[in-house]
Amino acid sequence: MELSKKGIECLRELLAPGNRRIVIVTHTNPDGDAVGSSLAWAEVLRGMGHAVTCVVPNKYPYFLDWMQGIDEIVIFKNDTEGRAARAIAEADILFCLDFNAISRLEILSETIQANTTARRVLIDHHLSPDEDFYLSFSHPDASSTCYVVYAIVEALFGTEAITCRMAEALYVGMMTDTGNFAFSFLTPELFRAVAVLIEKGIRIPDIHNNVYNAYTEGRARLFGYAINRKMEIIQDGTVAYMSLMENEMRRFQFQQGDSEGFVNYALTIKKMKMSAMFLAHRKFIRVSLRSRGDVDVNLFARKYFNGGGHKNAAGGKSFLTMQETIDHYIRSVREFADEGHLG
Ligand code: 5GP
Ligand code: MN
User: Fold this and answer.
1) Which CATH number fits domain 218-338: 3.40.50.1970, 3.30.930.10, 3.10.310.30, 3.20.20.60?
2) Residue spans of alpha helices (H) in 136-177
3) Ligand 1: which of 125, 288, 311, 325 to mutate, most ligand atoms within 8 Å of CB?
């Protein structure tokens, strides 16, 4: 990943006046990378004398509750006092972190679009970003937005500017988006960055424990149920899918974030190339897709589920019933295979 020198200079100029009103927004169903990059970048900007508000469309998963500064994030969906809307309306600069298109903000999109004067800056690692940003740091070859933020801070100020608290937030995103350093884009630069974060005093075992060993009993039992009872395998053992209905989730006291990781599990089976998870919401079904190697689920999500993401991790939505969604998936997988996309 290479940052553009021109982009960095442009960012430096944009931030030079100090005392700007800045809002940082990130995607719906914010994950460790979304929250980590927002918290770290907010701290950098505050250190420069700016007034910063972090806004998320809806709640982050409870296993991130321990993160320092997370209480200051305004959750748009629960924001009865209108703090988010006010901060967005008054913002001079709007940083868009860890997503590629304003539509990914869902319930927050309209409020963001209403501010037509703020300079918009994208910091992201998803494929196919929107083009209407004043400044764009779009790096689909970076493993996480946290790594892009790290590189920007390094380019602006050097790594001396990174505090332990920032380092912890950045590590959360690097760790979660790489599946604990197991997926793609594991470059020497990434591990050099991790080395710097360790020098700042982060405690990796503690962070790991806080994120991955903090689930409820209900989640553990739901996982067992989902794998044992709901995982279906098709396409000669190379494609899997799993679905969860609202009543099934209620049975296991489901909380936002509890199904995180379920979709990956099918890929632990040797021949598996692609896996899907269909999670029922009130008005639609959220689709999560994962793949191995050359199988491109970003393409699959775009083509069949009006979504997108990365090559090996993507998502989308379905407005059909669960059974219709599954039927559509099975048909789409067959077509995808016939076109040679499953290798
Ligand atoms: P997850 O399955 O963890 O929710 O999402 C995996 C990846 O797909 C993430 O990078 C996420 O940004 C992307 N993604 C998930 N849902 C959607 C969607 O509805 N539209 C688009 N464009 N990307 C999505
Ligand atoms: Mn990310």
Assistant:
1) 3.10.310.30
2) 145-157, 164-177
3) 288
